[in-house]
Design goal:
This protein is of the alpha/beta class. It is built from nine helices and nine strands. It has helices at residues 29-32, 105-129, 139-143, 146-154, 174-192, 208-215, 260-277, 297-311, 322-332; strands at 63-71, 134-137, 158-161, 198-199, 220-221, 231-233, 240-242, 283-290, 317-320. α2 (105-129) links the parallel β1 (63-71) and β2 (134-137). The two termini are 19 Å apart. Mean pLDDT is 89; it is low at 1-32.
């Protein structure tokens, strides 16, 4: 991701240029070159620098708020699917080791709660308030619950890819991962009627972003936590938009000790900080949710409280899907060197 600083952005001259005189990616070339140069490195530790660009969110919003529901239940590790061990991550049983070669009945049923009950609770919370969201959907999980997939589409939610399986791909060979990306697109197309335009593999390796770019149909990737704004990656030919995700505004941090009010307070503190900064430098806020975690009754209340809090800001908070952020960035901040 170490190429972001070298991409020149094209702005629409009909739009207000609030921060353009300070934005290093919107300044004339001679001004940009005055920034001190970092030595070559495979990582980008500099980013937008001292003064980030003004994203010019629709309606002059001070913060773009984006909720993600991770739909994973039925795609996790399970010996029924030929896996060598049971699932061990992100459940009510914290720190449990995987069971080698046998089923873990408690773990399986904890995941089943997410698809059988938790998903529908989250579906009601969002649809009753007419608030949009993006679903990071593992394709095998979608395939195994077509009613949930249909409900996502009917609600107007974006269904982005969360890969084919909810695996850790760190040590998965390139051929297998490439095939899983292909299957993720194929299965989602079959189940929902449309292919995914965004992807969050979730547990990637150093090949993942290249394989996503080579697939050719994705507009954005979210396997990054590196910024408060989207940015471009041009390392693999055609520019690919990176829309950073979150592991702090995420119910996974509270899987064992999440009181609803505690989750609400953390989200509120994050929103309030970004809202204040948004008077001069608007940003985006992502919130990660899991059907089997915040979909539990004792946790859902905190999420409901935050949904109502954000909704009270009306147009000053742009509640959107990730594809909406993607389309906004392609229209208003695309690289001038690219045919997009």
């Amino acid at each position: 991701l170490g190429v972001m600083r070298r991409v020149v952005l094209m702005s629409d001259p009909s739009k207000p240029q609030d921060n353009s005189s300070h934005d290093p990616q919107m300044q004339p070339r001679e001004d940009r070159m005055s920034r001190p140069k970092a030595p070559p490195y495979a990582r980008d530790l500099v980013g937008y620098g001292r003064v980030p660009p003004n994203p010019r969110w629709p309606g002059g919003a001070r913060v773009a708020v984006q909720f993600v529901i991770n739909y994973e239940e039925g795609s996790e590790n399970c010996v029924l699917d030929g896996d060598s061990e049971s699932e061990k991550l992100l459940s009510e049983i914290v720190g449990v080791p995987a069971y080698k070669g046998v089923r873990h009945m408690n773990m399986e049923s904890l995941y089943e709660y997410g698809s059988r009950s938790g998903f529908w609770r989250l579906h009601r919370l969002f649809t009753e308030r007419d608030m949009p969201c993006t679903v990071y959907a593992c394709a095998l999980a979608l395939e195994r619950n077509p009613e949930a997939a249909q409900a996502m589409v009917e609600a107007g939610w974006e269904v982005a890819s969360h890969g084919y399986r909810w695996w850790d791909y760190q040590f998965v060979d390139e051929a297998t991962e490439r095939e899983h990306i292909r299957l993720a697109v194929e299965v989602q197309q079959k189940v929902t009627g449309t292919r995914p335009l965004g992807i969050y593999q979730g547990k990637p390796n150093e090949n993942t972003l290249r394989l996503v770019a080579e697939e050719g149909g994705f507009l954005y990737n979210s396997d990054s936590y590196a910024d408060d704004l989207p940015y471009w990656n041009t390392k693999f030919g055609r520019p690919l938009l990176i829309i950073p995700y979150t592991l702090d505004n995420n119910d996974m941090r509270f899987a064992q000790a999440l009181e609803g009010d505690r989750f609400f307070q953390y989200l509120k503190d994050t929103f309030d900080c970004l809202y204040e900064e948004g008077a001069t430098a608007p940003k985006m806020m992502s919130i990660g949710l899991h059907c089997r975690i915040v979909g539990r009754p004792g946790r859902a209340g905190g999420l409901a409280k935050f949904l109502d809090y954000v909704k009270s800001f009306d147009k000053e908070a742009w509640v959107c899907r990730r594809i909406d952020i993607c389309n906004h960035w392609y229209k208003n901040h695309k690289p001038v060197t690219a045919n997009l």
